[in-house]
Each structure stands twice: as C-alpha cells, then as structure tokens.
Amino acid sequence: MTVDRRTFAAGAAALLGAGALGGDPAGAQIPGGGQPAPGRGVRLPASPVMKFRRGIAIGNALEASYEGEWGYTIQRRHLEAIKRAGFDHVRLPVKFSGHLEAAPPFTIDPKFMLRLDEILRWMIEIGLICIIDVHHFDNISERPDIHEPRLIAIWRQVASRYAHLPNSIVFEVINEPRGLLIGERLRKMYRAVLAEIRPLNPTRPVILSGDRWGNSIGLPALMGMDDPYVIATFHYYAPGNFTHQGAWWDKNQSPKMGVKWGTAADVAKVKADIALAASRAQPLGMPVFLGEFGVINTIPDTERAPWIRTVRRAAEQHGMSWCIWQFVVSGHMYDLKTDTWSAPIYQALFDRPPPRPALASR
To answer: Would you state the pLDDT for residue 247?
Structure first.
C-alpha cells in the first residue's frame, strides 16, 4: 500500500470503492469479457523462480523524505529478529522518486544509495531475501508519458548497481499501478523497464503488479509478459470497512470504528476472493505473490488475527507466497520497545507461538 506515518493507505478513499481493496463486486468480469471460474480448486504450481514463501514488509522507513521521519529507522537487529521468527523475505518499499535529480539522467542521491547498500548487505548476511519495491511514485499513474523516463532511470541505476548481488535481491517494478497505467500502456512500460534490467540481470526475479491498484481484477493485464523470471503480484484488503476502520487520513471518508469480522459468511467471502485471484492468475503461467495484506492497528490484535489467518491460509492453499503489511508503525506486529512479536498476529501467520526475544541481539 501507499503508506506514511499518518496513513495506512494514502489515497484509500479511492480504494474503498467496490472491489478496490481486493474483493470483488458480484458478477465481476475479467477485462475482455467473460466471468472467471470460481477457482476453488486451483492450486498454482510451485516455481523455482519464487524461492520466498513467508514475508513481512518494512514500510515507513525508506519511503519518507529521510529515514526516521515517519517513526522508524531500519536496524540490523530487527532484520535478525525477522529471520529468527521464520520469515524468509522482506519487502522493502523505497521512494526512489523522492531522491532523484530533477533533470536527466535523473541520478539517485548517492548518499541514499549508500544507505540502501548497507541494508541489502545486512539482508544477504542474515539470509533474508529482499524485495526492492518502487513505492510512492504516484505521479507515474497519473502522467505515465512524462514520468516513465524517471522510472526507467531508477531501474537502470538499480539494475546496474546491484547486478553483482545474488538473486536473493528481487526487483518489484512499481507498487499498485492505476489510473492511466492500465492494460497495454502498463505492459509497454514493463517491457521498457525489463529492457533495462535484463542485460545485467538475466535471471533475477522481477515482480510485476497488475493494474487497478494491484487488485486481483488487474492480474489479466499481465497477459503476454513473456519473461520466464517474472512473478505476478496482487494486494488484498477486503472488506475495507473492516481492515481500514478508524484510519485517520480523512475523517470524513475513513471507515468508522466498531466493524466486526468473522461470521461464516465473512470467512467464505475472503476464501472466495483468494480463490478468484488464483483463477485469474492461472492463465498467466507465472508464480503468484500476495504482496500485501493486513489490518490497521486501530483495533485489538485479537480482532485483527482471524482475518489475517484466513487470508494467509487461503493464499497457501492456492500455492501463493505472501507478505504481511507490516513490521512496525501502521498495521504493525512488532513492539520496538520490548522486542516482542504480537502473539495473536504471529500465531495467525505461523500457527505457533512467537519466539522469545534474543538478548544477544539487543
């Protein structure tokens, strides 16, 4: 999601429309005509390209104007705690567009890149797969013809700088494309970015989101992306009036507090949504990554956990890897003061109690 220290999802007023948070209105159709099959029995095949299964996002750090502005600075000991907890990957949202020179060749701030170098080195040493995700580049969805050269410049620099690193460093081209980045226009941009990445990174996994804010209804937009090392991703936050209740970015439009979730019908709807996502993804022939799901921490963790458990189990049932949003700040599941995991959220993800903090890491 597009998130800052004040919001679980900037622009979520638009996301709260029918189907925009990952669920689908009745009778939703695949672009191009026809209704998708229910997909309840679809299990997507395992792929050697997607070697990660269970992950967590570390947002609110490299998305800000400066690291720490939104309440969190990445520390090695936290990455070690993530690894000990059983996660095998971290999704790292990065606002490269906030660190570019204004004019071509759109050079990324060298100091910012040195900090990213350090974090990636930690990830490799600790044994975590890291997904570098271009986040908060909202202008490109509104005016892609103007801003696409900047995105290509970002990936030209990132692909060159990290070509020597192992394939445990994964690239995610853009977070939640929307607006004018739809269908063939999105595919055209992806091809241009891949043309920058592939010469020096021929087998590196690259994650591509469908259009429509990364909702599963946008997955068919990836049809025709013929690259054996790409991974399809989608995000899921339905129903938005539960997962985003009490979000404070817009008091006039944010879902009100007090929404409950957990009836048999609620559970069945989530399972059907994930099954539908699997059905939409199956024709692509790509591995599928549930790149974001979660519940804002305005309600008790005991109320967040059942939804998280249901989504996680459904994703696994259909052969998808997943990444929870997120480590700390909005949607958090880790207490920085006590170095402990939220027991209800951790158990929802792993079906076991959380590990005890390692004193040696303090």
So the answer is: 82
Predicted local distance difference test score (pLDDT) of residue 256: 87
Tokens of 24: 């689908």
- What does the pLDDT read at residue 295? 96
Contacts of 197 (CB under 8 A, 6+ apart): 155, 159, 171, 204, 206
Residue 179's closest CA among 211, 152, 151?
211
Q: Where are the chain's structural domains?
A: 12-23+45-361
Residues 6+ apart with CB under 8 A from 236: 21, 22, 23, 215, 216, 273, 274, 277, 290, 292, 293, 311
Q: For the ranges 6-10, 123-127, 266-270, which has the lowest average pLDDT?
A: 6-10
- Say how far apart CA 172 and CA 108 lie, in whole Å: 17
The distance from CA 53 to its chain's CA centroid, rounded to whole angstroms, is: 13
Residues 6+ apart with CB under 8 A from 195: none
Question: 110-126 and 76-85 are packed helices; what angle lies between their axes, rounded to 10 degrees?
Answer: 30
pTM, full prediction: 0.91
User: Which fold would CATH assign to domain 12-23+45-361?
Assistant: TIM Barrel (3.20.20)
DSSP state, 110? Answer: H
Output the six-digit token pair for 63.
Answer: 């998305």
User: What is the distance between the alpha carbons of residues 134 and 147, in angstroms, rounded to a whole number?
Assistant: 13
